[in-house]
Amino acid sequence: MSNPPTEFYSEERWQNWIGRIDDEEIDPEDEDSARLLLNLQDDTAIAIAKIVSAYDDGDLSEEEALEEIGDVREIVLAEVEIDDEEKVMLVDGVQTSLVCVFIAAEEYVAGGPAEEASVEEYLRAAANAEAEEDLDSALGYAAQAGTLVIDGENLDISVAEDLEYGLVTEWINGLDSLQSAMSDPELIEEDEE
Question: Source organism's superkingdom (predicted)?
Answer without folding.
Answer: Archaea
